[in-house]
Structure formats: structure tokens, C-alpha cells
Amino acid sequence: ADAATSEPFRLVPGGSSMQGRRSKQEDRHVIIPDLDRAARALKLPISAALPCGFFAVYDGHQGHACAEYVAKNLHMRLLKRLSAASGGGATPTEPAAVERALQEAFEEVDAEFLARFRTAPDGTTAVVAVVFGERLFVSWAGDSRALLCERGPDGVLVAVPLTEDHRGTLQREADRVRGAGGEVVNIGDGAWRVARRGYEERLREL
């Protein structure tokens, strides 16, 4: 630990991106290695344990607009909720508070994008990792994945999955989609896909 900061360890983040076969880069990522400092600069203090960081990957689909919107706004929505909890006398980085703040931030950004870009075909996955001291919180939507690398008993590094894909091929996810009013369909390409009700008419238009 660093005696000056009482940090149990130090975060050393890195990132890279590579454009696939699309004509434009549709993906975005966000790295905030010192979220506590960023929060204070934005006048949204969160009194977080150190080290404190925010890391996210947004895999855009059918364009970059949604991934870019989420990349610019999700961490801001999260900070506002954590700061509000801190101002209310709560401990903002307790597990229940962080989980609630992450869920609400995801839902708010989703609703905002749909309201502002009603006719846009763009979408994005999201996988977010937030570090508060010795605690790691992971939240995700879609099929982007988070892995934790750790050393096993034999000294070999192993990858531990922290997320489960939100895919229509998984029964639990299919049940959730149907419960929310959606459909899980095979449109003829051998893959089960999530669709809104009324998708048949949209297919006829295409």
C-alpha cells in the first residue's frame, strides 16, 4: 500500500481499439483511472475508497451514435447518483448503493437515447467495470464480456468470466425479453435475435 494515499494497490489501465470491416469505427471505450478526482473536478464528490476507477467498452451496432452517446453520458449519470447518495448521508460506495446507481444510470441513458434519437437504427452493448478500493463492480447489457485474470493454485493464469451474454439463445434471457414485451425470433439466418413486436412488418419493408 502507498503510505501517502492508503491505497491497497495501484491501477494501471490501458486500452486499444481496432476497426473491423465496417466503413467507420462504431465502438467506443472510456478509461477514467481516477474517478474520485474526476468527480471532484466536476463538483460531484463521491467520497470513494481509493483507488477508484471507471472502465467501459461500448460495442456499437448499425452506427456509432448510440455508443458515442453512452460513452459521453453513462459515467456522468453514475457520478450524479453516487454524489447524491453521499450528500444524503449514505455511504455511496457500499455494494447496494453502487448496484442501484449503476442500474439507474443504465436505464436513464437508455431512455434518453431512445427519446432523442427515435428513428436512429443505432444500438450498443455496454460493459462497465468500476473499482472502489478493493471492490470491483461490473455491469453490462448485451454480449460484450468482462473477464478477470487470476493466478490459479498451480501458478497458471486463468480467465474467469464476470458476465453472462444477453443473448436470445439463453433461456433466461429469452424469458426476460418476452416478459418485457419483446420477441425472440429466428429470421432465417440460423441465429435467434431479439425483436420488437411488429417486427414482421419491418421485415417486409426491408
Describe what this molecule looks like in 3D:
This protein is of the alpha+beta class and about 210 residues long. Helix content is about 35%, strand content about 25%. It has five helices and ten strands; from the N terminus they run E-H-E-E-H-H-E-E-E-E-E-H-E-E-H. The chain has helices at about 35-40, 65-85, 95-115, 170-180, 200-205; strands spanning about 30, 50-60, 60, 125, 125-130, 135-140, 145-150, 155-160, 185, 190-195. The strands form four sheets. It has a four-stranded antiparallel sheet, with helices on one face. A hairpin with a 5-residue loop joins strand 9 (about 185) and strand 10 (about 190-195). Helix 2 (about 65-85) crosses helix 3 (about 95-115). The protein is globular, with a radius of gyration of 19 Å. The model is unreliable at about 1-5 (pLDDT under 50).
